């Protein structure tokens, strides 16, 4: 059994799952297509009814698109003006990478086909899908009209803002930042004008939370983890808590039957074998859908609580999907602790990896703080 795993070099989740599958005899090849600008080259050819993709992208029985391709931003060292402008304006590198990515997935059994994953990642679509599948969804407005935004916030007791997608943009010559979920009020729109039409976003009522859940769907398994804050559950975004402060508690939980039913319907509608869902339970006990991520992080509950066998449970479910048989390795052998003891991976367990760009090395950003300031040469 051969699995090609598409992600970024240094992706903790990809490395850990690959290690666990190799223990069961699966041949796993990790591929970072975005690394073609870093001394590697990839070519696609279609000649005489045969398809060839060089750079070793061949021969797999199954493919897992763990993280989608993001083309690196064009480096200042690209000195040919026409090439620089073409790469910046036409996104030629991104289009090429996405095309090769889609072709690799189409040739083999794919855990998350790119077109389905891209559709599922759209926050407007997923809100509709969640409602259609029976989830409760917070009152929501998606708009680029600052007047509508102000009126919505006026009508809510509390409200929050979310970006429509993961956004990374420059704030200086060598620093980049990204948006995060935040509390907003009507006064916050006072300084906006018609230029806001260029920047639509998501406004939602803020749910007064009793608990939050990170739910991992993998093949026929649902792994659910409750997240509680030591200072109370009603946080805007639990990911904004620095991990070193140990303010979050993670525990395994069983979701109510109606929530599991909604998840099953959502899985069928999205036509994906793997995704991560964030849910929140209000103080009145109602469970709300927040968002779905086809490429979300899921191993950090075990990093925070070593009694949770997240790595084992996920690997066992993925192996069952791959091989159609039970995972042959014991739970005691497949833990994050043994992974770090027996692998060459040197990163940190609870991290996001952001794409390198403009002379920047890849930046490790804690999942507990998804706002990043990235500087050149900070991390190798």
Oligomeric nature of the chains: single chain
**How many helix segments?**
10
Structural class: alpha+beta
N/C terminus separation: 33 Å
Q: Describe the sheet with the most strands.
A: 5 strands, antiparallel
The general outline is: globular
Q: Can you tell me the residue ranges where pLDDT is under 50 for at least 5 consecutive residues?
A: 350-380
Helix content: 25-40%
Q: Using DSSP, what is the number of strands?
A: 19
Q: Taking all residues together, what is the mean pLDDT?
A: 75
Taken as a percent bin, the fraction of beta residues is 25-35%
The radius of gyration is: 21 Å
Strand order of the largest sheet: 15-14-13-16-17
Order of helices and strands: EHEEEEHHEHHEHEEEEEEEEHEEHHHEE
Provide a brief overview of the structure.
With 380 residues, this protein is α+β, with helices and mostly antiparallel strands. 28% of the residues lie in helices and 26% in strands. The chain has helices spanning 12-23, 81-90, 92-107, 114-121, 123-132, 146-155, 257-270, 300-304, 310-323, 336-342, and strands at 2-6, 27-31, 44-47, 50-53, 62-65, 109-110, 140-143, 159-162, 168-172, 175-178, 182-184, 201-205, 209-218, 221-229, 248-252, 274-282, 287-293, 351-354, 363-366.
């Amino acid at each position: 059994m051969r699995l090609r795993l598409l992600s970024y070099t240094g992706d903790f989740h990809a490395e850990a799952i690959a290690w666990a599958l190799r223990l069961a005899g699966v041949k796993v090849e990790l591929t970072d297509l975005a690394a073609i600008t870093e001394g590697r080259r990839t070519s696609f050819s279609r000649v005489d009814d045969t398809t060839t993709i060089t750079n070793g992208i061949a021969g797999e029985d199954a493919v897992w698109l763990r993280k989608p391709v993001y083309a690196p931003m064009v480096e200042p060292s690209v000195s040919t003006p026409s090439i620089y402008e073409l790469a910046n304006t036409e996104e030629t590198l991104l289009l090429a990478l996405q095309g090769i990515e889609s072709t690799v997935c189409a040739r083999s059994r794919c855990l998350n086909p790119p077109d389905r994953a891209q559709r599922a990642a759209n926050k407007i679509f997923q809100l509709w899908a969640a409602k259609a599948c029976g989830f409760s969804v917070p009152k929501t407005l998606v708009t680029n009209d600052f007047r509508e935004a102000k009126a919505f916030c006026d009508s809510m007791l509390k409200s929050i803002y979310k970006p429509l997608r993961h956004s990374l943009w420059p704030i200086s010559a060598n620093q980049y930042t990204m948006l995060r979920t935040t509390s907003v009020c009507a006064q916050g729109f006072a300084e906006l004008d018609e230029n806001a039409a260029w920047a639509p976003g998501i406004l939602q009522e803020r749910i007064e939370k009793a608990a939050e859940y990170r739910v991992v769907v993998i093949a026929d398994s649902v792994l659910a983890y409750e997240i509680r804050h030591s200072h109370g559950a009603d946080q805007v975004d639990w990911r904004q808590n620095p991990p070193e402060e140990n303010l979050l508690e993670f525990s395994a939980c069983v979701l109510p039957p109606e929530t599991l039913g909604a998840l099953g319907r959502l899985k069928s509608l999205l036509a994906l074998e793997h995704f991560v869902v964030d849910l929140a339970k209000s103080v009145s006990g109602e469970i709300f859908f927040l968002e779905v991520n086809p490429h979300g992080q899921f191993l950090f509950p075990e990093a925070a609580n070593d009694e949770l066998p997240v790595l084992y449970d996920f690997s066992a479910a993925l192996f069952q999907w791959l091989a159609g048989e039970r995972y042959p390795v014991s739970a005691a052998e497949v833990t994050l602790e043994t992974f770090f003891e027996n692998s060459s991976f040197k990163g940190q367990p609870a991290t996001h990896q952001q794409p390198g760009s403009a002379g920047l090395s890849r930046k490790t950003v804690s999942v507990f703080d998804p706002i990043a300031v990235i500087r050149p040469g900070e991390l190798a």
